[in-house]
Design brief:
Layout: E1 4-12, E2 31-42, E3 45-58, E4 64-66, H1 72-80, H2 92-120, E5 127-134, E6 137-148, E7 152-158, E8 162-163, H3 164-174, E9 179-186, H4 187-195, E10 199-203
Length: 205
């Protein structure tokens, strides 16, 4: 079960000193300022703040005034007293999401570079993930490099085909050594297969 929701945090001004007189009970030096931060969380991990505003609280009568209710002079005093910035921790979720997608992008770029290198300099035993479309579905099988010449590559063709990446993982786990047919392709044909996204990756042991 995913637990999510919103929370509110009060951050006191930097000086922690009173910023004025309460205009409700007229108690001198009883007014304190806070920055109210409302944030969205998942599993109590802050994701991002969606609202911030200055509020004042009277230490005597406990009257709360929100930013729109604070008179301009008091508001100016509050701001000059040094209101805290929203802590970076309240952006934890966004930072984690950014790191995840950044890592995924780096991994994708690294994988593309590796695949390009293996395509240009094939080696016996390289395993190609071959993808084709059938009735809108992605079907996968494996080609294993058996022989290499200047002009062509001969592959062992896996006896099985799988639907989707989940099926491909199962094929790799259970049928990775089942090869009984061969196919020989000219090198330009292999390059065209990669350009047409028929080769999704190349692995080398």
């Amino acid at each position: 079960m995913i637990i999510f929701g919103t929370r509110t945090k009060l951050l006191q001004n930097s000086s922690n000193a009173a910023v004025g007189t309460c205009n409700y009970c007229n108690t001198v030096g009883s007014l304190y300022a806070y920055k109210q931060v409302k944030y969205f969380h998942i599993f109590w991990i802050p994701i991002f703040p969606y609202s911030t505003e200055i509020i004042s609280v009277c230490d005597h009568c406990k009257k709360v005034n929100y930013q729109r209710e604070i008179d301009p002079q008091t508001l100016a005093t509050i701001r000059s007293s040094g209101m805290p910035k929203t802590p970076v921790g309240y952006f934890s979720g966004l930072i984690l999401i950014g790191l995840f997608f950044g890592s995924a992008a780096v991994a994708g770029i690294s994988g593309s570079i590796k695949t390009k290198k293996y395509l240009e300099s094939p080696a016996t035993g390289d395993v190609y993930e071959i993808k084709r479309k059938e009735n809108g579905k992605s079907m996968y099988t494996l080609y294993r490099v058996a022989n290499i010449t200047t002009d062509s590559i001969t592959f062992d063709v896996n006896d099985y085909e799988a639907e989707g990446t989940k099926g491909l993982r199962k094929l790799r786990e259970q049928r990775s050594d089942n090869y009984s047919e061969k196919v020989t392709l000219a090198r330009p044909e292999v390059v065209k297969m990669k350009d047409d996204n028929q080769i999704s990756s190349i692995e080398r042991k």
